[in-house]
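To assess whether the prediction recovers the assembly geometry, we first specified each molecular entity separately, as shown.
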Amino acid sequence: MKRVERAAVNVWMVGSIGIDAIMTRTAERKNLMGGSLPFSTAASSFFARTGAVGVVGSDFPVSFDQRWASFGIDLQGVQRKEGPTFRWACKYDDNMIERTTLMTELGVFADFMPRLPDSFRRAPFVLLGNIQPELQLHVLNQSVGAKFVALDTMNLWIEIARPALRKVVRRVDLLTLNDGEARMLTGKWNLCDCADVILKMGPKFVVIKKGEHGALLFSKKGIFIVPAFPVRKLVDPTGAGDSYAGAFMGYLARAGRVTEGFMREALVYASAVASFGVEGFSLDRFERLTAVEISLRVKALKRMMDV
Amino acid sequence: MKRVERAAVNVWMVGSIGIDAIMTRTAERKNLMGGSLPFSTAASSFFARTGAVGVVGSDFPVSFDQRWASFGIDLQGVQRKEGPTFRWACKYDDNMIERTTLMTELGVFADFMPRLPDSFRRAPFVLLGNIQPELQLHVLNQSVGAKFVALDTMNLWIEIARPALRKVVRRVDLLTLNDGEARMLTGKWNLCDCADVILKMGPKFVVIKKGEHGALLFSKKGIFIVPAFPVRKLVDPTGAGDSYAGAFMGYLARAGRVTEGFMREALVYASAVASFGVEGFSLDRFERLTAVEISLRVKALKRMMDV
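The predicted structure of the complete assembly is given in tokenized form:
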């Protein structure tokens, strides 16, 4: 599935690209390739020919480009700008769940204006990763072939860009967000109520992510509950939600169409892939991840859900 | 299944019996039948002939006895003592998850010395509900027929009675506790690690409850992940864990033997039954709950888990 070079992109994703510094209870790592886009596209690359849309600065290491390209991702949509790459530093609590952002420097990300390469314009699957809602809309408007659009967002945009966010939400087929964000966006506490409100905003599907507790898919067809794969060796949870969304969209893009059945399969695959991602820093674990490992973990997860 | 009077008890449960006062965001109720035992036995009564072992004071209302007995539960093991019944008051946060205990008065529960009625002694299934570990051991020693013993506990006993608790843990087949308690008992954070440690303490099975996120069953056979049924109308979460444990044991008692398959079914049934319990205060919802409703919710939950 991986490294299908030169084939047309069937899913493209936009998001942030950064250089991260991360502290956990047991380790401290600097100069990691981070941001939402490397995680989402790498996870997607296990399933489909994936295109990346983002921006990096002049300090973005060539080695990062090489490692990223090694997933067979089409990087034509990644702009190179004069100036520093987006930088982010965080420190995890001992429980590896809560984290404190120590530093955010937007760099060239501050003036990011996404431009869709011509070869991406006809791709049927689109993941609008976590960037300003206005920019998500701007790049979506450049797409003529989009058949199924998923949107990821974060608390920041719910707080400071709600009207623009609502505009994008109306345009997409699926909204994915975490439980806290779903509550913030809707003003409801019960996740079923949150989903009801969101489904009225436009999307046909909502995926509410609950971190180590898994995720819930809501649609007119009902609810699907997918657990997180229980990870024994949690190294760094950064990017798990992005890997989740990326693998999910990659799986659908490979399937080529969206049915309740494919959707459920896609979520199980996403759970498996995301669980590998957190076993290493940055894309470390993904770089040595094989299709066989994914398939075995999917089987294991299905056994854990089987009654 | 319910109200099979006079048949021999095939599961008995010990636990606390109280009179509760509960405040939620939208309601305040006093003089509720509470404690772990009413919830666990009522939930179990939908599946098996259930016996209760506990103590009440002279102020325990006759109406409570009648409502409790209406589930067909054998109340021979419930002692009547001079003095006040155990009383407990709590207030839930707006999210209905965190709660603050406002008052605890042990009353006759302080000197509780459980005594197993002769007719319970040969019952094969036993749930040692949340009371002092010494008393759990004391009453377990009176049982000659116990084939499968489950133990529920709480943070208090982990803190103040750890050696005694460890003694009981060694004697039981299954330990059920919530995620926080599992971490407290084992000193591990990762729930897989917690389960490893507990399985080495004696039990062949561990069920780690995660409230609205469901539960995990660990055994040598692997992991089973069961979600909580998404409740739309949460009225009062008090007793949910006790209902869960009770329904689980009732289901196994009806099955008559413990296999991985029955165990998984039992957990799905427990999830369904517990989800009804929180739709009302005390046993209100259980009192009008039918076997058909349980069966429909089990089907719905299985659909939500089906991939």
